[in-house]
Amino acid sequence: MLLSRDQGACFGVGVSFYGTRMDPALASTIRVPVLFISGDSDPLCAVSFLKDIEKRIGEGSEVVVFEGRGHGFAHNPSSPEEDEDAEKAFTIMRNWLHEGTLLSYPLQRRNSTIKGD
């Protein structure tokens, strides 16, 4: 989770790509909305796990799922289609971070699925 381990810092929003190494028991201690970006073919993190974490965190968090994409698709695209989805994922993240620093809570909750080509 982006910057989640910085102690003593205050963050307005968080971002998690691919959702590995998350402890569901700690989700209720997160006090800011978190954007989760993952592929529905990720063998290391099921979409259902991310949606459970999203519910535990509460209002404002969002899960964005890219259909047909596996673990690491945005950071290591292996095809032109994955490269296009990587650009979309980073744009979504950039907008999330931008909106999170400008808007007051609660952020509108949106569950999204992005269809692959």
TrEMBL record:
It holds the Pfam family DLH. It comes from the Eukaryota. GO terms for molecular function: hydrolase activity. Keywords: Cytoplasm, Hydrolase. Residues 10-99 form the Dienelactone hydrolase domain. It is found in: Cytoplasm, Cytosol. GO terms for cellular component: chloroplast; cytosol. Its main location: cytoplasm. Belongs to the dienelactone hydrolase family. This is Carboxymethylenebutenolidase homolog.
